[in-house]
TrEMBL record:
Organism: Streptococcus massiliensis
E.C. code: 6.1.1.7
Organism phylogeny: Bacteria, Bacillati, Bacillota, Bacilli, Lactobacillales
Domain Threonyl/alanyl tRNA synthetase SAD: 168-210
Protein name per its UniProtKB record: Alanine--tRNA ligase
Names of required cofactors: Zn(2+)
Amino acid sequence: MLNHYDQMLDLTLDTQIKEEKDGYYAFEDTVFYGEKGGMLADQGTINGLKVLDLKWKGDKLYHKVDGKLSNPIHLQVDAYTRILNTTIQSALHLLDGFYDQRGLHIEAFGVAPEHQWYEVNSKEVDEAHLEAVQIFMNEALLTDIPTSFDYYKGSDYPDPDYAHHEEVRVVSFGEINRQPCATVHVNSTGQIGSFVVLGAEKTARGTRVLISVGYASAELLKKDEKILKNLWQTLKVPKNELPAAVEKLLDSNKSYKKQLEVMKKELLTYKAQELAKLNELFLPDLVEVADLRAIAQILLNQVQQTKILLVADDKVTHFALLSPDGQARTLFAALQEKLAAKGGGSPKLVTGLAPASKEELMTFLEDILH
């Protein structure tokens, strides 16, 4: 285990190249942490070159940079990213302690700064529960509990699942939580900075609690503030009047939607009336596919003879079979057998489609009807 990971702000190191393979470098020592154990990878530079990738092979970390490296090597981890990634890890340990006390456990978690969350194996998470989490975390940060790191031989560690490890590192936050972990952690809980419960949503396994930790909270606040600013500037209202303005806009939208529905129904009725004036049996490509069934239903009440609407669409033809004398299903059955048509409806109206051209459908149906 690299003891550099016991110090969150151990960010610089001078070292030597140990191995180079396929553009990746391993060093005699490193302060970089590659993504593993639920923690995101560090960012930074090596000899001034940007680190592009970090990957583990066993316990050895390989580094890829934007260029070639030669000794001596100077490693520089980006402090902002290190703190951003570390604080959520330590916060999750504290949350493990919170739920251990209640006989519950965290099933899964997300550590991306823009979307931090954990999933607890209980659906009984209400506002009182979330408030208890917030109070617990506030107290843990305020008391600034020191972090301790203890090392054991894998064979000596009491949990047999770790016996195959050469070394086991145990991370402790006072009496709150103690567990094996290889990731970087804060050196005391106060370094987490801030913890905010944003809300919760039910899942198949329990409840997902949305949170924001440390620097991520500041980023989230800036992002949300930008969205709000764009919104109130677009609506041309003061910030404090934004909720009322949005509610008014939603009400207006509902009203406009109803008006559009009425107007569309009137338009379809007019279209059906125009079609009813035509004497032809087949009415090809006179309506949109999306309006086919609606217009056919209106048209059915305005005609006394069979009408067939057809709309060609790529390699298929959509159809509506209108039969005031109740023969629509008979015609459809013939189309099913001959042209593998699909659809359904009533004896007077069937809509569907067939993998054929409208000319093929018209020829076939004309033979049946005449």
